[in-house]
Design brief:
This protein is an alpha+beta fold and 417 residues long. The chain has 2 domains: 105 residues, Peptidoglycan synthesis regulatory factor (PBP3), Domain 2; 245 residues, Beta-lactamase (3-Layer(aba) Sandwich), CATH 3.40.710.10. Helices cover 34% and strands 27% of the residues. It contains 12 helices and 19 strands. A 6-stranded antiparallel beta sheet has the order 1-14-15-19-18-17, with no helix packed on it. Strands 3-2-12-11-10 form a 5-stranded antiparallel beta sheet, sandwiched between helices. Strands 4-7 form a two-stranded antiparallel ribbon. α2 packs across α7, α4 crosses α6 and α5 packs across α9. The two termini are 59 Å apart.
Length: 417
């Protein structure tokens, strides 16, 4: 039986119905895929726009430098030397050497704060050091043969009295020999980055013991950081049986906050001083480190160091880096929500006057967030200091509604439109 062809019009109607049905299926399938995908896709991250803080004024401090020699100012917690004068060539450091001797010895013979340490008994060879150093006009203290002192008391005589015979005997005891002392001190200097400091004997009597003002600022920081040494160098005097009573050689102790560290006097070195002082600045206290090398005599040295310290105090300033609620960034979402990243608290810092202040904004990837949530931080840097200010949101970042998601398919799906 032969089939009868359908009329062309009926075929077209049939085809259109097939296409419509196919499109309907595609729409249903597409909607079934697109709708949950668009509605359930992860929320796009909010963009953060930085709001730069205002500049912090910088000024050059006017330091009253000594008329001769070399000098420098530093401070604990501040990188390197803050200011200096007179050059940075190595110069003889005289008895400041003894600070190096004791700090290096404490690595070989550690001592905890409050502990006297082992007993050192001085023999006839040690006792002979008194006459040896007295003959070259070195500072000495009584050391009869058979005398026994604790390690702590011995270090007091070395650093407070500045007795050369005690420094020599202590180095021999701590390291075992002069050769071992030189090797130990050389390694200690290298370990602590004092590359321009040279030590050839433990007392400072040899002018070949040299250093720079910059290296001595770092030495002062190391002395302050050691609780045993810092407690000794602040003593105004030492009194020990069979040794005697001696005043500190540092006549600035107790004046203008000075609490250390060491004098040094030698014909080739002049009068030298490495000192520390606690200086109030606003609500904070700064430990200033100062050094003077090559002063003509002590009567010139101490007033010069005091004037230098007093003028340096004015070089520190308390700066408000951020106030609570101060905006540092604005977060915005594609669907129109906005919130500021603000400082969570007031933050101030004590800065050196000539140190420029820079800031770096660190923002996180925020999507949905509540008021008060963490929103990154601002890191301020000045003269080696790093101060971090935490940021929080001053408002909420709500998620997009369904109509925005369906009306912005590319943004909702995280692809470029």
């Amino acid at each position: 039986m032969q089939s009868v062809p359908r009329p062309a019009g009926r075929r077209r109607v049939y085809l259109r119905r097939r296409i419509a049905a196919g499109l309907g299926v595609l729409l249903v399938v597409g909607a079934g895929v697109y709708l949950p995908t668009a509605l359930l896709a992860p929320v796009p991250a909010a963009a953060a726009a930085e709001i730069a803080p205002g500049p912090v004024a910088v000024q050059e401090p006017a330091i009253a430098w000594p008329a001769v020699g070399a000098a420098a100012i530093g401070a604990v917690g501040y990188e390197g030397v803050l200011d200096s004068a007179g050059g940075d060539e190595p110069m003889p450091i005289a008895s400041i050497t003894k600070v190096i001797t004791v700090l290096a010895a404490l690595e070989a013979r550690p001592l905890r704060p409050g502990e006297p340490g082992p007993t050192i008994t001085f023999d006839a060879d040690d006792a002979a050091l008194y006459a040896r150093y007295l003959a070259v006009q070195g500072t000495v203290a009584a050391m009869p043969a058979g005398l026994s002192l604790s390690q702590l008391d011995t270090m007091k005589v070395v650093l407070v009295v500045s007795a050369n015979n005690y420094a020599d005997a202590f180095a021999e005891w701590a390291f075992g020999s002069r050769e071992a002392y030189l090797a130990g001190v050389g390694g200690w200097l290298t370990e602590h980055g004092l590359a321009r400091t040279t030590v050839v004997e433990p007392t400072g009597i040899d002018p070949a013991n040299t250093s720079t003002a910059a290296d001595l600022i770092e030495l002062g920081k190391l002395a302050v950081a050691d609780p045993v040494v810092s407690s000794i160098v602040s003593l105004p005097s030492v009194s020990l049986p069979r040794v005697g009573t001696y005043a500190s050689t540092n006549r600035l102790l107790g004046i203008d906050g000075v609490d250390g560290v060491k004098t040094g006097t030698l014909e080739q070195a002049g009068a030298c001083l490495l000192f520390t002082a606690d200086v109030p600045v606003g609500d904070s206290t700064v430990t200033v480190i100062g050094v003077v090398l090559g002063s003509p005599d002590h009567d010139t040295l101490f007033p010069a160091a005091r004037a230098m310290l007093e003028s340096a105090e004015a070089g520190f300033r308390e700066v408000r880096l951020a106030g609570a609620g101060q905006a540092f960034a604005e977060y915005s979402t594609p669907w129109g929500d906005r919130a500021m990243a603000v400082a969570a608290e007031d933050v101030s810092a004590v800065l050196w006057a000539s140190a420029p202040v820079a800031s770096t904004l660190r923002t996180g990837s925020l999507r949905v967030a509540e008021k008060g949530d963490e929103a990154g931080s601002v890191v301020f840097t000045a003269g080696g200091q790093r101060i971090t200010v935490p940021l929080v949101l001053d408002g909420a970042l709500d998620g997009p509604g369904p109509w925005w998601r369906l009306g912005h398919p590319f943004e909702a799906l995280g692809v470029a439109g």
